[in-house]
Write a structure and sequence with these properties.
This protein has 175 residues and is mainly α. It has nine helices and no strands. α3 runs parallel beside α6. The chain is elongated and about 85 Å long.
Length: 175
């Protein structure tokens, strides 16, 4: 009897009042420039992984050697800050793209170009993210809402009554 009760409760769905975790994460992710921050973070991580020398060798090499580790760390921090603090995304994305471009010189051509591209694309995505943007048309259709008609740049043509029997374009004056 007890095993039958356990088996039936294991397949039961979560109570209606409790949100499901994937939906909660998706809602949290939609309120911030998640993908831009993640790409910037991954770009910094990739550049850090391409560094071959140990930190003791870099300390003997001087400021250029330390910059090879500091710049990708700043990229990782900016990526995390973009995800956790979306209100300041413009500042973090500008710092992120400038630091990413600095890794071209200091860190093996920006992590053999892969980390550089990830950082620039991620910073650009975070910079261009708009918090109050309407869902795209494919998202509206997926949610079951009808798509809005396309807006054209052409002004609407309306006919206005002239009050006379003359055509609207005639310039005859009545004496």
């Amino acid at each position: 009897m007890a095993s039958a009760e356990r088996g039936s409760s294991a397949g039961a769905a979560a109570p209606a009042g409790e949100p499901r975790r994937p939906r909660a994460f998706a809602a949290w992710r939609r309120r911030r420039p998640f993908w831009g921050g993640l790409l910037l973070l991954l770009g910094g991580g990739e550049i850090l992984l391409t560094e071959q020398a140990s930190i003791s060798v870099m300390l003997h090499a001087g400021a250029g050697g330390i910059a090879a580790y500091v710049l990708p760390l700043v990229m990782v921090v900016c990526g995390l800050l973009i995800i956790t603090n979306p209100e300041q995304r413009l500042f973090y994305s500008i710092v992120g793209v400038l630091v990413t471009l600095g890794t071209w010189v200091t860190s093996n051509l920006g992590g053999f170009v892969v980390g550089l591209l990830l950082g620039v694309v991620g910073s650009s995505m975070a910079f261009g993210w708009l918090p109050d943007q309407e869902p795209r048309q494919w998202r509206r259709r997926k949610a079951g809402r009808p798509a809005e008609p396309a807006v054209t740049d052409q002004p609407a043509v309306t006919e206005q009554p002239t009050g006379t029997d003359q055509p609207a374009g005639s310039d005859r004056s009545v004496n």
